[in-house]
Amino acid sequence: MLLYRIVGGNRLNGNIKVEGAKNAVLPILAATILNGGESIIENVPALNDVETMLEILKKLGCRVSHQDNTVTVDSSSITSNEIPTVLVKRMRSSIILLGSLLGRTGKVISNYPGGCAIGVRPIDLHLKGLRLLGAHVEMHGQIVCQGKELTGTEIQLDYPSVGATENIMLAAVLAKGTTLIRNAAKEPEIADLQGFLNAMGAKVYGAGNHIIRIEGVEKLHNCRYTVMPDRIAAATYMAAAAVSGGEINLENVVVEHLHPVLDKFRESGCVLQTNCSRLRVTAPGRLKAIDLIRTLPYPGFPTDAQPQMMAAMCTAHGTSIFVENIFENRYRHIDELIKLGADIKVDGRIAVVRGVPRLSGAQVSAKDLRGGAALVLAGLMAEGVTEVEGIEHIDRGYENLGQKLKNLGADITMA
Length: 415
What we know:
CATH class of the largest domain: Alpha Beta
Number of strands: 23
Number of helices: 14
Shape: elongated
CATH superfamily of the largest domain: Enolpyruvate transferase domain
């Protein structure tokens, strides 16, 4: 098993270019199935989840090439509408293929998706949306969706689910008539998917608002598209500057996407300088505790940045309170932080973090993607040596995290 070995205490300084967004590129890659032609996707991050999605596309019959940060997908010769079970189990985002395969072929067969065990993530809203578009859905050990003639309709989501919003968008693009998604997710990644679909000739409007309108078209065409920067990776690199008392310049960011996070870093005592695509973070010698961090759907504070911010608060001056409203099992990193000397108490969805003067190195294990990143951050500020096992979880969502931190001055090696 690979691990990161971190000798804490180094102050991080320098420049870092933020990679393309994991949560945007995966649905965009799934959407390449729809045009039956060539899609060139730029700013694709080198992630394990991306490699899994590309492997799925190949198994479905797509021709795929990947050079540097550019991926070309030719979906003209789809030969299967069954997603391989072994690949489905690797990645939660494989569920997004339901909408695109159904829209392209009229049928899709899939097992239930895998991914990080951070809580119950039901797919009932995904399936409800597909049913309302006219698909027949059966679940007998597998998910089988069939619908040769999908028809636009109005769909009210009980919760603004990102995945359900994306699946409905993908299925509705080639459906007859107009589809309205009400209470749609408003995350920036939804707007990026809309941008890609429209680059292929789709007619999708309203992403970023509560209502998304999709006017079905008969066919799509080839396109080239650049994936947005990863706002969660940017938040993680900001936290790296914060925990080390350092100064980091982030390039390739969309500052507008980061405001819920920027507010909390300012509250912690960091000085931020921004323009549209660059961000400088200058951290104090010791962070101040943040009174309350409450995770919410966008534009609230993102659940994907909660573990990293919690790591930063472990040595802050004062007490911070976290309320996790998205995933009920998103505190799996807390026991590992406690091994490093953190003072954290949990009551249901509430975590109380009392800042301690210092953390001490220990052997810890990443249980999920963002929790693993939090442990790396904690290791950067801990005295002595910290070993973080389970870094395959981290590699699912960060492009060369260890090397990027090392370039900034961290003492981190892979063993």
